[in-house]
Each structure stands twice: as C-alpha cells, then as structure tokens.
Amino acid sequence: MTSKRVLVVSIIIFIIFAIIALVLVLNKGHIGNMALVKIEAVDDKKASEAILPKLTIELEKEYLSSSNKKETSGITVFKDGEEVTTGVEFESSDTDIVKLNKNNELVAVSDGKAKITATYDGLEATADIKVITPIKTMRFTTTNSVVRVGKDLQMKLQLTPSSASTDTLTYTSSDEEIATVNSNGIVTGIAPGKVTITVYDSYTETEKSVNLTIRK
Fold it and tell me: Can you say whether the dihedral through the CA atoms of 27, 31, 37, 40 is positive or negative?
C-alpha cells in the first residue's frame, strides 16, 4: 500500500513539474509577472552571418586621376581577415571609367565612378572608386572678411582647371565656438572673434586658408 502511495505521489509531482515546464515554455520563462527563466531569442540573420565566411576588399586609393594614365591603385582581398593572393577574379562595373591591367591594378580611363567586384571561392565583395580631374591650383576669392553672428558666408574658391573635381575638398574651422563651416564651404558666425577657415585637398595634399572676423 505504501509503495502505491509513493508511486501516485511521484506521478503527481512529475505531472506538476511537467505543467510548470510547459507554462514556462509557452510564456517565455514567465509565470504571471515573474520571470523564472530568461529565454533569449536567437537572431537567425546574425547567427548565419557569424558562421558564414566573409570576403572583403580594400583599394589602395579612393581616387584616380583621369589625366595621369600611369597612376594605378592596388587591390587587396581578405577572406575572414586573412589576405588572399591567388585565385581572385576582379571586374569593373564600367571599363570606360576604370579598367584592370595585367597585374590586376586599377587604371583610370575617364572621369566618373565605378564599382570594383572581387570574387573568390564563391564569395563576393565590392568597393567604389572615383576617377577625377585633379586640382592644380586653388585660392579663396571671397572679398568679405567679416561675418555677423548668426549669419552665413559662402566661401568662394577658384580652381584650376575649372573642371577640377571638388569631391576631394574638406573645409575646417580653427575654432567652431566662433564659426563653423560645412562641406560646401558655408561659414556660419557663432560668436565674436577671429577664426581661420581652411580648405584641404586630400588628393594633392595641399591646403589654403583665409582669416575671418566674426562680429555681433
């Protein structure tokens, strides 16, 4: 009789624990407002990205000159961080802008933008490159050296040749608490004082500056 009671009690306990487990699963680890088990959802996309091999491509240069046919840009390909030196196939999206020579280096043809694709072991990676007309000389021609607080001043820049690309230009302010300047060369007065605005050409690594006075 005692063994039967033990068996019945065991079955009842088993059923209770089974019901609790089922409730936890159905309610994502919660009973009422109380969390007994923390169940984290698995992001299938992130999991697959972590498992699948990855191919990346790096270009030696972001820009090539359309006027310098001897200039080239090397290409480096990595699979899961390890450099791949053989067996890679390259393709330019527009060979009228950028082409590949026999050494798999990029050579400029004419101004524009092209996408370079590297294929290896069933994997693919891409990178963009621009062909530009480089700046030979540049100078500020802005006649106004005073900017009022809260007002804007468009910096005027004369380039030679006139068809030169402005994609490589970056404007900076010596003190952004006095004046700021955006990517288009528009200066905004912030507070009274003196500030230097500089434009830098990343292709030729040259720069020009002008001094401005900010007044109320």
Answer: positive
Statement: residue 148 has pLDDT above 70: yes
Q: Which residues of 194-213 are buried (b: 16+ CB within 10 A; e: fewer)?
A: ebebebebebeeeeeebebe
Give the domains, in start order, of the chain with CATH numbers: 2-40 (no CATH), 53-132 (2.60.40.1080), 137-215 (2.60.40.1080)
Q: Which two tokens stand for residue 191?
A: 């507070």
Residue 93: count of CB within 10 angstroms of its CB = 14
Nearest-Å Rg of the Cα atoms of the chain is 32
Please give the angle made by the CA atoms of 175, 134 and 127, to the nearest 5 degrees: 90
Q: At 50, list the tokens.
A: 């972590």
Residue with tokens 């830098």: 200
Chain length of the chain = 216
Q: What is the signed CA dihedral for 10, 12, 13, 18, rounded to 10 degrees?
A: 120
**What is the bridge-based pairing of β-strands 75-79 and 55-59?**
antiparallel
Is pLDDT above 90 for 143? no
Under DSSP, is residue 108 helix (H, G, I), strand (E, B) or coil? strand
Measure the CA–CA gap between 155 and 152, rounded to whole angstroms.
Answer: 10
Residue 44, pLDDT score:
60
